[in-house]
Every structure is written in C-alpha cells, then in structure tokens.
Amino acid sequence: MPSSRLLVLFGSQTGTAQDVSERLGREARRRQLNCRVQALDSYPVVNLINEPLVIFVCATTGQGDPPDNMKSFWRFIFRRSLPSTALCQMDFAVLGLGDSSYTKFNFVAKKLHRRLLQLGGSALLPVCLGDDQHELGPDAAVDPWLQDLWEKVLGPHSVPLNLDLSPPGVPWPSKFTLQFLKDTPSSGPEELCVAGTDPQGPPSELQPFLAPMVSNRRVTGPSHFQDVRLIEFDISDSGIRCGPAPGPRGVRAARGSHGPGLSRSSPNAGACRPRAETTAGEVGPTRPGAPWPPASFLCGFPEPQRPPPAGGPLPRPWLSFPHSFAAGDVVLIQPENTASHVQQFCQALGLDPEQHFTLQPREPGVACPARLPQPCSMRRFVSQYLDIASVPRRSFFELLACLSPHELEREKLREFGSARGQEELCEYCTRPRRTALEVLCDFPHTAAAVPPDYLLDLVPLIRPRAFSIASSLRAHPLRLQILVAVVQYQTRLREPRRGLCSSWLASLDPAQGPVRVPLWVRSGGLTFPKMPDVPVIMVGPGTGVAPFRAAIQERVAQGETGNVLFFGCRRQDQDFYWEAEWKQLQARGCLTLVTAFSREQEQKVYVQHRLRAFGPLVWELLEGRGAHFYLAGNAKYMPADVSNTLLSIFREEGGLSGPDAAAYLARLQRTLRFQTETWA
CA 432 → CA 147, 462, 494, 596, distances in Å? Predict the structure, then answer.
C-alpha cells in the first residue's frame, strides 16, 4: 500500500502557490492521507532526509528568482557539498507557478526539479508548469497534473484500500475560531500592538514603523492619463540611517553558481500557517533499511525546529530588515481597505464593525496573523487584514459553495469551483477583475450565512506592497521618497478597477492633518558598483526610473560622475519625472541624460531606439571601461526589446558574431554587470 504520509512545501510570493498548496492538502485529506502544508523556509530542513513523499509548489518571481519564503532553502539545497544520495529515500513532485511573459518562465520549479534528481530523489511526475498568462490561469496545467499525481501516489486505487473518499461538498474545518466579546474593551490595546518602533531592532513586518507622510504631490500633468505621485516620508525616528544594507545583498554577491542572482520582487507577506508538525525534531531513517545520509549532508543544516506556539509569530529568516538602505533597496508599505468597502463587507456578512473578538487557531503550530491585536475590533480586522479588494481564487468559490444554504447560489458556486467551470469563472471573475467583496454581494444569501470562523479561510490577508526607494539618504537625510503610479483602469464592470495600495496612498493628504503609514525597508535586487570610476548605464522608462534616481543621488554625493541615464515617457510636459533635477546634474557634468518622448512625433520613439542611436557610447563604456548596465520597468515588451538592442550593438559596434554577442550578454548577466528589475 502506498505511503499515507505526505508533505507539501511551498514557496509563495503573491499567495497563489500557498493557495494551491492548501488545495493539495485538502484533496489529500479527502483521500485519507496524513498531510502537512508548510512554507519552505519555516520547515526544519534537517527533517527532509526522513520524508518519504514531498510535493514542492514553487512560484518564480522577478527574473527567475525564488520567492522570499524559500530563499534560505534555495541557498542550502544548491550547496555543492550535498552528496548525490542525500534524498535517495524521497519520492517527490514539483509544481511550478509562473508567467510565460517573463523570459525565465517557471525557472525555479525547473531548476529545483533537476536539483532534487541530482540529490537522489525519485520524481513521480514531470514538473508541472502553471502559467498565469493562460486564459484559465495556472489551473489549466494544475488540474490534469493533480489527477496524475493522485494516481501515482495512491496506485491503482482512487483512495487507499478500505478507506472512503470524503465528500467534496462538506466544508473543511476552519483554521481559526473567533470568540466574540460581550463587552467592548475599555482600553485601546489595538493601537499598542499594531505598529511602532522596536528599540531592539529595525522596523520589520512584525513591527513596522509608522512613518509620518511629509508630502504627497502629483507629478504628472493635469491632462495626463495617469496620476503619478511623489510621496515623501519622515523616517527620523525609525532608526534607519545612511549606509549599506546588510542581508541578501551580501549573500547574493557570494552566491556564484549556487543559484541565480536575486532581483527585487513584491514580498510575500501573508502569514505562513503550517499544519501541526508531527515529525519536527525527528532524526532517523523512516524506511526499514534506508541508508543514513553521511555527515556531509547534515553539515550546515539548522537544528531541527518545532513549530512556534499557537498565536505566536512565525520565524521569518528569509526577510532582511536593514537598519539602513542604499540605492536599489525597496520599502514595503502595508495598505488598508477603504472605509466604504469595510462597511459594505460587514453589511453583506451581517457583522458588527464595532464588535470585538479574540482569535484562536484550531491546530497547534498555526500562528495568528502578524500584528493582529487581541482583542480586535471587526472594523480593524476587515480594514487592515482581509484583502476584500483582491480577485478571488478558485478555492474561494469552493468554500463558499460548501457554506451556502441557498440552492441556486450553491449550484452556481459549485460550478465556478469545479474544473469544468473554469472558463465561466474566468469570464465572470478573472477577466473583469471582480473582487471578493463584489462576489459576496452577488451571492447575498450565501454571504449572510458565512460563519465568522471562516473569514481567514475565505479571504486572503492583505499583503504589503514593495516600492523602489527613489531617494538617497545622502541627498535627503532622514527622508524616504517613492514614486507611485496610481493604478486605475476600466473593465466591462461599471466601477473602475483600482489598485489597493496606490489608491490608498493617493487618498492620504498630510495637509489635512497628520498621516502615518506603516512601512519597513528591505534589501532590493539592484546592486551598484562600490568601486570608484566604474560607469553605470541605466535604462528606466516611466516609473522604472525611481531606483536610478536613488543611485544617481548616491553616486553624485560620492563624487562619481560616470552616470548615463536613458529615460523614456510619453510627453516632456506631462510625465518627465525630475526634469529639473536631471538637467541640473547634466549641467554640472554629473550625468549624461538621453530622453525618448514616445508621443511627440508621428513615429513612436522608445528607449531602445535611443539606446541604439548611442550604440558606440554604450559599447565603449561596457567593453572599454567595465560599465554596469541596469534596466527597470514594465516586463511586457521593453526588457526583450532592450536586450535585442544590446545584442545588435554588440554585433555592429563590437564586431561580434551572433553567438558571441549572446555569450557576451550572458556573461554580463552572470557577473552582475547586467541587472534588471521588471514587473508585469
């Protein structure tokens, strides 16, 4: 009989991989399998040698980078000292989640699959390549792959012998219980527990700094299609000071061939909620006669760890919270839902916004959301924790169907949650970007019947948003600036779609009274040369120029003048960010500025066209002076266009053949002289 013990480990950046992993866990339990679901970096990796069956669910972020909550695991698993028989007792499968619009599509899953084979693991299936660009999303690849997985895991039987398949229409137990208080607490514990400054350390996700907003100014013209804001915060009381940021930057430089270079990507801030760790601390073979791995495999493993106590914070070794920041670093901001949406959500579910409750996990080892005060009001809970403005995933509809008392609504929800209903779900929800709140309003009988215990199973946590820091402490001491494009667009729905964080930030006006925003800084993915006289070439169209402003300010303050900036926008009089600043630096001989205003002539001109026009300068700086090349902006077409332009420059200005030009570009990337920071 096949093993009834299954471990699901995930690396998730935006929550999709975690959602798929929890779906795997539910399906496994329906098949009477003992299943645990954990984030990769919260799992005691020393126990991996004892696991008979592991499913890895991995997202790929940035330019082929692992998510934040698997970076420690990623660094370890690629150690050259690990023997080729280290995981010979383990059967495994890898499910990848990526976006085919990126060059390194599902790079993490593919590389992990190969590495597990190198360490002796036995693959149950080829790696699954979920694609966010598919019309039906990742489920188009995940659904058939899971069917094959269960056949492999369970053998010829759909369930283990003598065991029944749990009915799919029965709701799974909620992760938490909400105990409502009869009386409203007289004190204000919520304010004390949410944010502040930790005297023992820098601001972090568990203890963000409530930064006063100094200014919030629109920097695009009144007739420009997009509202872009330059926002400044006062960080004088945060403990953040000028200097290089420690953490992943140092690790990244020392990595060599152990893994790809890190690039900045949006953080995975959702609280990891591992199931009860029944084998934590267990060290020994799990199969009779299984060879004990040599000491070289255990060398460097952390000590086995047991899960944190219920309600306590989970360890997050993969996140770096420096006391300082440098050019290329990012600031993470924790947004809130609008007051009108909070009120609408509470009305739909029949919740009293002023009622207070305490939250308790059902299982040991499951942590409550970070920073959640106990007790907490429902208004604060919905406003600051539940992402009711997110587009719901398939699991949302599956759970709603289980909880619905209304026959017609239940049947429709079941259809949306089924494999056959994915095209209709895409048309109803995914394509028009319908939010969780709007879905609940469309199914009023079901929404009114949702037990409060299921709120955290139904609605994901609000995740912090990452923004490139657009200023240097050397130029703006005790200040931090960001450039924010306010996201708003129209679908076939009547109400415009709005980005949660950017719209929230745009609505804050420090001129009307004190405004404080919870934030913390983190090492980013762009690292600039520390040696003097090394030129840098920066290509930053639109808001992609933000990290380069920080870099230029920092380098000019240090007397470095070899700065070349290619900036592109639509029109000079509408969205030419920091025009006066660039021209002043250019007049001082500190900057070479090349602009591309795409809409100011009949033939559109983009940064790649201007880059080609300055091909001789680019080649001279790269080949003759060892320059570093940086690219930041939208990932859709621009990165590929710029890369192709560079290949053309290498051929025409450097006299290289096609293969040699490609090898030259690859060498620049490998030695971190070509770095990118792009987003979809």
Answer: 29, 21, 10, 33
